[in-house]
Amino acid sequence: MPTFSAFIARTILPCIVTLFGLTAGQFAHSAEKNSTLRLLVVPQFPATEIHATWSKLLDGLKKDGLPEIELVFAKDITEFESQFKAGQAELIYCNPYHMVMAKKAQGYTPLIRDSKPLTGILVATTGSAQDGIKELSELNGKTLLFPSPNAFGASLYMRALLKREKGLEFTTKYVKTHSNVIRGVVRGEGQAGGMVNATLLAETPELQQKVKVIYETPPAPPHPIAAHPRVDASTREAIAAAILGHIKTHKQVGEDIQMPNPVRADYFKDYKPLENLGLEAFLSN
């Protein structure tokens, strides 16, 4: 198995040296200093599903020559937020507003994101009981399902828009994951539920056919992979380049983690504008 430094020297070092002005010795020292990394993934899905999809990427990166990146878990969004606010993981995969929170709390820097914008969607069942829903106003006073308070497109941004722009009043029920939202709507636990377009498309065709989209938020930058500032710039570059290269040649891996067409991310261009949405009133601490 080639070492991390050998991998860098062979594939990425030339562009890093040009970009950052590093010598080979300085870069090798940097890579060694950051040889143990942990990746914390937002729990949109059950832990077993997160492990199955993300392990493919991490195993592939290890085969490509990167050092092992340990996948770590949070039982729910609240624990996930507590962990990144405390800077417990070197790498995180988070929703767009979590990126804002992580930047403010610890100085996390986004590395890569998918090229396709994220939109939150509100779904209702296609069953006979809900066929009559034509206008959002018909949901006034009803129960709506959301994965968690601070899930961005599926809950935080969605609830703000429904209340501020659409004037809806509704009972909120949090069910932990996007998977639970769509299943709860189908079972009639709520008249509608918040998800994001990517998680709906990840469900089976049979389940997708049981719901319809009745509202969609404006687009926003999608979930990034971000690094803590203790991961130095040269190592961040190496990780980003390795992930971009791996997904380019292993498209299904990118599909599985909802990042089929990854591109470089920039906080000030992509995520800082979200600071101006005024969502603090809808955050749950």
What do these coordinates show?
With 285 residues, the chain is α/β, with parallel strands linked by helices. It contains twelve helices and eleven strands. The strands form two sheets. Strands 2-1-3-10-4-11 form a six-stranded mixed β-sheet, with helices on both faces. A five-stranded mixed β-sheet has the order 7-6-8-5-9. Helix 6 links the parallel strand 6 (143-146) and strand 7. 40% of the residues are buried.
> What coarse outline follows from CA principal-axis ratios?
globular
Q: Can you list the strand order of the major beta sheet? A: 2-1-3-10-4-11
Task: Tally the beta strands.
Answer: 11
Low-confidence stretches: 1-32
**SSE sequence, one letter per element:** HHEHEHEHEEEHEHEHHEEHHEH
Question: Outline of this structure?
Answer:
By secondary structure, this protein is α/β, with parallel strands linked by helices. It contains twelve helices and eleven strands.
Relevant terms:
alpha/beta, disordered N terminus, five-stranded mixed beta sheet, single chain, 285 residues
Architecture blueprint of SSEs:
Blueprint: H1 4-20, H2 24-33, E1 37-41, H3 47-64, E2 69-72, H4 77-85, E3 91-93, H5 96-106, E4 109-114, E5 120-125, E6 143-146, H6 152-164, E7 171-174, H7 178-187, E8 192-196, H8 197-201, H9 205-208, E9 211-216, E10 224-227, H10 233-249, H11 251-256, E11 262-264, H12 267-271
